[in-house]
Amino acid sequence: MAESSASDSASSTYDISTVELDDDRYEVKQSAIRNKYVVRDSAGDVVLRGKQKLFKMKEEFPFVTGDDEDAFTVKAGGIMDVAGNYAITDAGTREEVVVLDEEFSLFVENWTIRDPDTGEALATIRSKNKLLSALRHLVSVANLVPNKYEIADAHGGHVGDIEGQFSLRDTYTVSIDDASDVPKEAVIAAACVLDALENE
């Protein structure tokens, strides 16, 4: 029991004050406008909307709640990053909650969700298909084939999946099987951001 309590406490450290994501399944769908996303829970209710700000020196993705209240922002840590980190900042507290760290490689799409202060890894999101990942970087038509990612905790244990679906607009289903130590908000934001960035 104490272990569960400690786990819940660790997870709540990375919660975002403006949004509550209690579901274990979400759909992330790209709108007709490029790099604009809507996130729905399993009941079909809109819980988040996000879009990339255009003409910014640093890539920036503000998110709002289903009620159009500011939720959080994902912002690149460096100017014109090819590979780098993206901080998730809580709109309510103005504090960095986690950092999304991309491992740049031609053959793999790996993201690590880290503590913003210590750099400690909290979770990873990695492509299940290395060949498809490589093709997506080399051949634009490969982006039409949906990719699949595995979500793992800091110890490499499986906690969920991000599954692309065949669609005219990019659509991902984010499933969390056991996320006691994984911040859901960061995983959902990462699903949007990695789709936008991997399709550049």
General description of the model:
The structure is a single chain. By secondary structure, the chain is an alpha+beta fold. 18% of the residues lie in helices and 40% in strands. The chain contains 3 helices and 12 strands; from the N terminus they run H-E-E-E-E-E-E-E-E-E-H-E-E-E-H. The protein has a 12-stranded antiparallel barrel. Strand 4 and strand 5 form a beta hairpin. The longest helix has 15 residues. The protein is globular and about 35 Å long. The N and C termini lie far apart (46 Å). The N terminus is likely disordered.
Q: What is the fold's blueprint, element by element?
A:
Layout: H1 2-12, E1 25-30, E2 36-41, E3 46-51, E4 60-65, E5 70-76, E6 85-90, E7 96-104, E8 109-114, E9 121-127, H2 130-138, E10 148-153, E11 158-165, E12 171-176, H3 184-198
Antiparallel strand pairs: 1-2, 1-12, 2-3, 3-4, 4-5, 5-6, 6-7, 7-8, 8-9, 9-10, 10-11, 11-12
